[in-house]
Amino acid sequence: MTMAGEATGQVSTAGENAVVPGPARVRVMLVDDHHLVIEGLRAVLSTDDRLEVIGEARSGRAAVDLVPQLRPDIVLMDIRMADMDGIAATRLVKQVAPQSSVIMLTMYENPDYLFEAVKAGASGYVLKDVAGADLLKAIHTVAEGGSLLDQEVVGRFLRRLAAEVDQRSAPSAPAPSDRLTARELDVLRLIAAGMSNKEIAVRLSVTVATVKTHLEHILQKLQVSDRTQAAVHAVTHGLLT
User: Fold this and answer.
1) Domain harbouring 43, CATH code
2) What is the pTM assigned to this prediction?
3) CA-CA distance, 29 to 102, in Å (whole number)?
4) Residues 125 and 190 in one domain
5) SS3 for 104?
6) N or C: at which end does the chain have fewer Cβ atoms within 10 angstroms?
7) Residues 216 and 166 in one domain
8) What parts of the chain have a pLDDT lower than 50?
């Protein structure tokens, strides 16, 4: 298991004396028990100067130990590993670093595996044979608060999750931090319906920038990392009723 150095800020000059900070780089951690997969992921991510690989782990257990130290923005997590599978590791990672988003890496689309992954805290998944450009797009989508799951998949997962909550018991009582404003609840309901920021803006007759601000507040109040997990949290805590 190796770690790269900490991210260094980028600056660009604007005029003789002005110094303007560059965009923050997305800090990514790689988790897979196959050396060739790790090397391949590193090679793809190295083509995007907006991304920085800050560490890697060769097992789910090692990832759980390393994430609290590195606090990555994104964790690329293999779903099947011998020591601790990606679902169990994701559940623990989200406990120690709830603001880190987890993207599952899988060889095939197994609905049961993927449902359990999202329920454990994953933002979504990508197939291991995905094109490099699509992997980079997925990372940036999640880093910017977007979803990797289309509306149909989100709806199916949330309905299944709601059914489990109904069978188990009443949803958990919302904590004080869960008390969203009426408009934030409106946005959350539309997120749970699988709508994009642009679609929500049209529905609520507001700007996309306003929707993004509401989303930031929702994520902060719910203490989750992305819109997929905001929807999951909303279902399990009865915030959509």
Assistant:
1) 3.40.50.2300
2) 0.79
3) 9
4) no
5) strand
6) C
7) yes
8) 1-16, 18-20, 176-177
